[in-house]
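User:
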Amino acid sequence: MYELRAPVNYSFGQLTNPAAVSDTSMVSTDFASLQSGLTTSLYIPITLQDPANKQFEIVWATAHTGASNTLTVVRGREGSAARAWPASTLWACAPTLRDSVLPVPNAAALPPDPHVGLRALLQDTQQTVQWGYPGGWELEARRGILGLVKRNVQDTNTTQADSLFETLTITGMRATRYYKAVWVFNTNASGAVNPPNGTASIRLSAVGAAVTINDPAIRTQGIINQVYTNPGIVVETIFTVPVDGTYQLGCSANSGAASGGTTLTILASGAANEANAANKRAFWVEDMGIK
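Assistant: Predicted structure:
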């Protein structure tokens, strides 16, 4: 019920008849111009007002026959209270908070009767959500890529100990959201290869700290050391953060060699004239939306 809201620009008038607090219909000669075909799923919001006494009531018109002076209404909507209104009471199809951004303390306070497209600001998390059908409350817009670094350089590692390469600092991360980290690159190896084989990891710092190779890996995968080909590697993962704040993520890798003798090379992006060269070595973090 109440999925579709149909506000009307510059529609206003006065009640022809008084309306008792329990009435579910109202009469005004000015209602005749309003659209027909209203239902409990398609309604017009109308505000009754008494400026002298600073009182108002929001009603939802849910039935109207074309050119009729009578509306069927649901009383006391959007946090207002049903009141008795005399004849000549002013009414208007005026914007309310639900036509803008409705502030609520937290997710538990979201209205149970939202219309499609209703936007609400969660004051505790400072996030804006939007009601959609059939998905329900969703983040109004995913923020997309929060940080991206591309490096057209070549790096090497010759041991089992990780070396730290690409890093990104992301501000304003939230514990209530999902994120995705992706590291793409090409490798080659020389010396004693396959075995040993190396690993590549994405690491997450503590809140407010710089990332190091001692920080926990949120994703690790193997690298097959090869001499003859330059295989493309994609390391990616979905992750969350424990508390709100600024975090740094880093990419690390090792050759897997216990005592040297194997060189893992993380290749540069590519030659300037190579197709799509700039995208062959990149690290980025995406905002995937609210939990």
